[in-house]
């Protein structure tokens, strides 16, 4: 395996103006004919270098250059390239290759899923379809003809608009699609199958009518309305917020069961993991409904941020992914609760991206080297990339940001560009210099920001001192200061925001404002401050940093109640919980009796008793920081102590708060009983409080709670309530009820693969002893298969990622199990194998005994035989 470097980027020697593809689909092979209309890149010299086309796992049957049939003497073939010498500046290459989608288990290129043909080309899958310049800066106009059996594959789809179709002898038929927009090969798509669709219409800002179609297997046709509604909302939102209109006459989504990722933004023909399209009350949870809405939006938004303006090379991946995640997050915030969306995203970032940024695979938002690009669809590219865009938005303000995005889309329409081009557009539109800010793109690691205060009663000034630093990451020992936008407010003793006037300013401006911390050490002094204030720092999590300020617990309780920023009210609660839990972890490690700080009980009680608060916020604030987050913030993570302390706290809270929890549970369950399912924020909020209350209540083991759980399980009309009741039973000591419910659930939903995924996950995540044995037994269940990525994630991924006490069992059996699965999957599906491996790469977080066991399993994978580039890169870098 070799490393690719950003510094080696060179423009393509040749361009492909037109790409004409014909696919002949058969049961035991597929023929791909490609006609490439090519020319020398006019920006380079006139001489004609050799042409090296990418191609993997292709059987070359025929190739011509300008109608001259080539023989083996005219070209060189390796397992990754076809090389030949052009003799003219413009020429046409025609090739025919044979491929085998029917045996493609890697799910990259053309493959079969549940009897249908589909493609996944990003990032470098097109080279498994035909010989091509498979790089995003080669953009071409595509026409695609698909031919296949009419009965088996009545629907034949590709990018763009349908322009012709017809029948052939032998029960076959064909269709031709033309995409008028130039695109890189990674946006190519083809689908052939027996599919039904729901159709709708959308009229754009400029009154063009667009046909919308969502294709699914016939039995799922009753589960697409939510995705269709989400699509129409997305189209409208992108017009209103970004001025972006859809550009083809038809927009299609296809749901497939076997898919490595969530979904893919192929031009005009998005292909989705069925888990990100299908949703209805009876089978999908509230979280799943919101996921569908977000993914539909994300892929739709790529039509501009990714497709019309694409990436020059894969080092620029965050240009499209970070930006599009930021866009979809703002969309979800507008559709639902803004504060709750922010809380969820920040919790996810701090638990998972911060861990990545502190681990062996840490890399900048714009990496400068990689071995296997599939490994770089990371939390850093996506989530930190989105935070970088959010900071630009914060620094520029909404208006200038919109001017910048308008300029970016106009200036670069039809081009393949870089993150620098994006930032330049933002600078040109706003007049703000982002030179130093761009360090966010090039320096890896999570910055720390330590804050201290000094109040001067006589001078009536209040000073905040900021110190920033960033730990070393692989290949980067020294970091320069970042531009850190810190949104803040100052609370007076009654909890009101004070007017903010910095020294040197003529007047106060606002009560919440953004300071830019740009130096390693920097102070800001506020004037006219009569009494010692309490700072509310990093409101809305205005920068992806680890902030520290020496709050005591009473101050955190005060912020929980009074901060005008909803995110920071939640954040204060989290910090309070972290302090309390860390105290319990210490007690546990010293073998002392555990004693819960009653202030946490008091704080949560007052939340539960305040009927005016947003119920979703109350639910979020009742959720203690997860074990994975507690691991991330530990110097050395003590798996058992973290689990023990957190469970002790949950138990204590459940007992102390039984009355208010029971009251809120019953009230909400009553409303749920009388309300048909609605996938909207207010209803999500009610159910989230109801369900977290139930999960606490069950810890008391009271018979009335068991009865309520069984009532909810049996009588509810939606998966949110049903799955919570099931999860509560699965984690309870009521063995008989648990067994009965699991069995009934599986019997009822055995034909619904996505629901069975949830059934697997609930059991995989159960922290009761014996978790590994349960997971191993479930792998033998008829609904389980290693060939389906959703199943692998639902069972093995959930076990290793969420069931920390069982996965990290002291004898190393969890690690051995995971390594075994990675070795098997390496041969079947390298991308899934390498993603599954992530928990083992975190060995540095643990004490010596676990480190040794984890490393031994990584070594065993390394020695297990022929490794894919995907698995090799992750294993070798995490051992380095
Ligand atoms: N372009 C990606 C899908 C992709 C990723 C294809 C990696 C091939 C390799 C798509 O736009 C995407 O980012 N999908 C996300 C979901 C999204 C809501 C963040 C995914 O698939 O997880
Ligand atoms: Zn994306």
From TrEMBL:
For activity, the cofactor(s) needed are: Zn(2+)
- Sequence ranges assigned to domain Peptidase M1 alanyl aminopeptidase C-terminal in this UniProt record: 554-880
Keyword annotations from UniProtKB, A to Z: Aminopeptidase, Hydrolase, Metal-binding, Metalloprotease, Protease, Zinc
- The reply on keyword GTP-binding is no
Which InterPro entries does this UniProt record tie to the protein?
Answer: Aminopeptidase_N-like_N, Aminopeptidase_N-like_N_sf, PepN_Ig-like_sf, Peptidase_M1, Peptidase_M1_dom, Peptidase_M1_pepN, Peptidase_M1_pepN_C, Peptidase_M1_pepN_C_sf
Give the main EC class. Answer: hydrolase
Pfam families annotated for this entry? DUF3458, DUF3458_C, Peptidase_M1, Peptidase_M1_N
The record places domain Peptidase M1 alanyl aminopeptidase Ig-like fold at: 445-548
Reactions catalysed, semicolon-separated, are: Release of an N-terminal amino acid, Xaa-|-Yaa- from a peptide, amide or arylamide. Xaa is preferably Ala, but may be most amino acids including Pro (slow action). When a terminal hydrophobic residue is followed by a prolyl residue, the two may be released as an intact Xaa-Pro dipeptide
Documented EC number(s):
3.4.11.2
Keyword set includes Zinc: yes
Q: Where is the Aminopeptidase N-like N-terminal domain positioned along the sequence? A: 83-187
Looking at the record, the residues that make up the Peptidase M1 membrane alanine aminopeptidase domain are: 227-440
GO MF entries:
aminopeptidase activity
Q: Please report which protein family the annotation says this sequence is part of.
A: Belongs to the peptidase M1 family.
**This protein's name:** Aminopeptidase N
- In its UniProt entry, the species of origin is given as Phytopseudomonas dryadis
The gene designation is pepN
């Amino acid at each position: 395996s070799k490393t690719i470097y950003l510094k080696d980027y060179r423009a393509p020697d040749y361009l492909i103006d037109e790409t004409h593809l014909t696919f002949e689909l058969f049961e035991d092979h597929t023929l791909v004919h490609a006609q490439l209309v090519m020319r020398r890149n006019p920006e380079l010299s006139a001489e004609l270098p050799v042409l090296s086309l990418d191609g993997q796992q292709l059987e070359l049957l025929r190739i011509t250059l300008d109608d001259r049939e080539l023989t083996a003497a005219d070209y060189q073939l390796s397992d990754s390239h076809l090389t030949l010498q052009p003799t003219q500046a413009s020429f046409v290459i025609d090739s025919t290759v044979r491929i085998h989608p029917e045996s493609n288990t890697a799910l990259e290129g053309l493959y079969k899923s549940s009897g249908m043909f589909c493609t996944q080309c990003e990032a470098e899958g097109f080279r498994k379809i035909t010989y091509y310049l498979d790089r995003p800066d080669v953009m071409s106009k595509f026409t695609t003809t698909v031919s296949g059996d009419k009965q088996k594959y009545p629907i034949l789809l590709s990018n763009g608009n349908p322009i012709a179709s017809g029948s052939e002898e032998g029960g076959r038929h064909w269709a031709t699609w033309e995409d008028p927009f130039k695109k890189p090969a990674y946006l190519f798509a083809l689908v052939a199958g027996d599919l039904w669709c729901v159709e709708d219409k959308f009229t754009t800002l400029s009154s063009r009518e667009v046909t919308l179609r969502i294709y699914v297997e016939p039995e799922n046709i009753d589960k697409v309305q939510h995705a269709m509604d989400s699509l129409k909302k997305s189209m409208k939102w992108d017009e209103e917020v970004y001025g972006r209109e859809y550009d083809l006459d038809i927009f299609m989504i296809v749901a497939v069961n076997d898919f490595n990722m969530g979904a893919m933004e192929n031009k005009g023909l998005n292909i989705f993991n069925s888990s990100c399209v299908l949703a209805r009350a009876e089978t999908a949870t509230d979280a799943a409904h919101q996921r569908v809405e977000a993914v539909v939006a994300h892929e739709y938004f790529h039509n501009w941020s990714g497709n019309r303006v694409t990436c020059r090379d894969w080092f620029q991946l965050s240009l499209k992914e970070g930006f599009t995640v930021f866009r979809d997050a703002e969309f979800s915030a507008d559709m639902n609760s803004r504060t709750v969306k922010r809380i969820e995203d920040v919790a996810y970032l701090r638990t998972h991206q911060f861990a990545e940024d502190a681990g062996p695979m840490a890399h900048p938002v714009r990496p400068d080297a990689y071995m296997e690009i599939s490994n770089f669809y990371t939390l850093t590219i996506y989530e930190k990339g989105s935070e970088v865009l959010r900071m630009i938005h914060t620094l520029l303000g909404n208006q200038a940001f919109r001017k910048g995005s308008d300029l970016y889309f106009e200036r670069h329409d039809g081009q393949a560009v870089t993150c620098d081009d994006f930032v330049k557009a933002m600078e040109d539109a706003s007049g703000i210099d982002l030179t130093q800010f761009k360090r966010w793109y090039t320096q890896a690691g999570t910055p720390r920001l330590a804050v201290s205060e000094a109040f001067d009663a006589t001078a009536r000034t209040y000073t905040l001192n900021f110190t920033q630093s960033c730990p070393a990451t692989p290949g980067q020992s020294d970091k320069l200061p970042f531009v850190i936008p810190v949104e803040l407010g100052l609370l007076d003793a009654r909890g009101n925001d004070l007017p903010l006037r910095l020294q040197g300013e003529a007047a106060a401006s606002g009560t919440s404002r953004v300071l830019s911390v740009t130096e390693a050490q920097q102070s800001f002094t506020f004037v006219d401050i009569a009494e010692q204030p309490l700072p509310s720092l990093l409101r809305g999590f205005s920068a992806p940093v680890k902030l520290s300020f020496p709050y005591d617990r009473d101050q955190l309780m005060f912020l929980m109640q009074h901060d005008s920023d909803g995110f920071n009210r939640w954040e204060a609660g989290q910090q309070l919980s972290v302090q309390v839990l860390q105290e319990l972890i210490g007690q546990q490690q010293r073998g002392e009796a555990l004693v819960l700080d009653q202030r946490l009980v008091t704080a949560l009680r007052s939340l539960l008793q305040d009927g005016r608060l947003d119920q979703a916020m109350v639910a979020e604030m009742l959720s203690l920081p997860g074990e994975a987050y507690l691991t991330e913030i530990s110097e050395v993570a003590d798996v058992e102590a973290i689990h023990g302390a957190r469970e002790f706290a949950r138990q204590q809270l459940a007992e102390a708060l039984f009355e208010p929890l029971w009251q809120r549970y019953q009230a909400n369950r009553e409303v749920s009983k009388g309300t048909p399912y609605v996938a909207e924020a207010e209803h999500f909020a009610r159910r989230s409080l109801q369900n977290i209350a139930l999960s606490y209540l069950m810890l008391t083991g009271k018979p009335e709670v068991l009865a309520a759980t069984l009532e909810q399980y049996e009588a509810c009309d939606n998966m949110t309530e049903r799955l919570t009741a099931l999860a509560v039973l699965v984690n309870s000591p009521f063995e008989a009820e648990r067994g009965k419910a699991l069995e009934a659930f599986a019997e009822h939903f055995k034909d619904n693969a996505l629901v069975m995924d949830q059934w697997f996950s609930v059991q995989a995540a159960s922290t009761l002893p014996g978790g590994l044995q349960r997971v191993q037994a479930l792998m033998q269940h008829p609904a389980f298969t290693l060939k389906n990525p959703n199943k692998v994630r639902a069972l093995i991924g959930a076990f290793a990622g969420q069931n920390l006490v069982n996965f990290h069992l002291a004898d190393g059996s969890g690690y051995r199990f995971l390594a075994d699965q990675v070795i098997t999957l390496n041969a079947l599906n390298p991308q899934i194998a390498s993603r599954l491996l992530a928990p083992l790469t975190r060995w540095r977080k643990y004490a010596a005994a676990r480190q040794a066991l984890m490393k031994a399993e990584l070594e065993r994978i390394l020695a297990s035989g022929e490794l894919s580039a995907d698995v090799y890169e992750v294993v070798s870098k995490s051992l380095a």
